[in-house]
Amino acid sequence: MNAQDAPVIDVIDSHTGGEPTRIVMAGGPDLGPGSVGDRLRRLRDSYDRYRSAVVNEPRGSDVLVGGWLCPPASPDSAAAVIFFNNVGYLGMCGHGTIGLAVTLAHAGRLEAGRHRLETPAGDVVFTLHDASRVSVENVPSYRLHKDFELDVPGIGRVRGDIAWGGNWFFLVGGHGQDIRYRNADTLTDYTWQIRQALDAQGVRGPQGELIDHVELFAEPDDAAVADSRNFVLCPGKAYDRSPCGTGTSAKVACLFADGRLAPGQVWRQQGITGSVFEATVRPDGGKDANGVKPTITGEAFVTAEARLILDPDDTFRFGLAVRE
Ligand code: PYC
């Protein structure tokens, strides 16, 4: 087949604080009617190779997070989205929602203001302040375990909190690691060992969910810029170039539970590349009265508009891991 006759998928790429998002604007399989959860199940169970085609090599990379845009189930919502990565699907994605908002505005599909977005983890509301700045009122977030102790082969005992912020996180301070961009490989190895220990020892969320993000914290370099620095390892072993929206939500839920963050007080979380998200909490009475609704604010910029070509003659058209 000529490449110009091959199936295509139109995408818009952006980055949020250095972390890339690729939004599927058109093309690909019809995920049918229903809730965003119904569409996620169809994408995962019948069309998972399209997830791989969009984000994996040779078109993408392990770092890329995809967002499959769907018509919303409710007329009150601006859109529905399924976020995914190199290995699977995400409940919510903070940096991805900021990227999605800026992408929809860039495409002329959204005005500044407040908009509802349907995600598999629940509805969120985002406010597009201008062409690049977005606040996300995330799903209810909470801490499941404080000071959870984990024996990690090769490292020893690691203590951290397990918390939900739209994805599951193991949040670790006091680790002795140097949280710097130049140490990203070492930090990846360290957090991957923790992740493997969590999996191997059956540490799970309340419904048996994997604790599939590991987040390390350090004091800020400059207290005028940030309250904390972090390094976040994502499920497919890539690290988040941004401070991670759901990871920051999990963090502020823990801070609130410890009485270290008051409602409305701003927490500035800096990521490994230096970008900063601002976060506030509103108590929502969830999990032992310590649950919160976090709001995360950050900036995204569109980097590309592209057409992905799935040439049937290309054995790698669905990504290196899926050969047909
Ligand atoms: O910003 O929530 C986030 C996120 C999750 C995984 C990568 N980024």
How would you concisely characterize the structure shown here?
With 324 residues, the protein is α+β, with helices and mostly antiparallel strands.
Strand share of the residues? 35-45%
List the strand order in the largest sheet: 1-2-3-4-6-7-8-16
List the ligand species: pyrrole-2-carboxylate
Return the string of H and E elements: EEHHEEEHEEEEEEHEEHEEHE
Mind telling me the C-alpha Rg? 19 Å
- The counted number of beta strands is 16
What is the count of helical runs?
6
Give an overview in words:
The protein has helices at 36-46, 48-55, 94-106, 184-200, 245-257, 286-289, and strands at 8-16, 19-27, 65-70, 79-84, 89-90, 113-119, 122-128, 133-137, 142-152, 156-164, 168-172, 213-218, 228-233, 267-270, 276-283, 292-309. The chain is of the alpha+beta class and 324 residues long. It has an eight-stranded mixed β-barrel with strand order 1-2-3-4-6-7-8-16, surrounded by four helices. The relative contact order is 0.18. The structure holds pyrrole-2-carboxylate. The site of pyrrole-2-carboxylate has 13 residues, from helix 3 and helix 5.
What's the layout of helices and strands?
Elements lengths: L7 E9 L2 E9 L8 H11 L1 H8 L9 E6 L8 E6 L4 E2 L3 H13 L6 E7 L2 E7 L4 E5 L4 E11 L3 E9 L3 E5 L11 H17 L12 E6 L9 E6 L11 H13 L9 E4 L5 E8 L2 H4 L2 E18 L15
Parallel strand pairs: 2-3, 4-6, 11-12, 13-14
Antiparallel strand pairs: 1-2, 1-16, 3-4, 4-5, 6-7, 7-8, 8-16, 9-10, 10-11, 12-13, 14-15, 15-16
Helix pairs in contact: 1-2
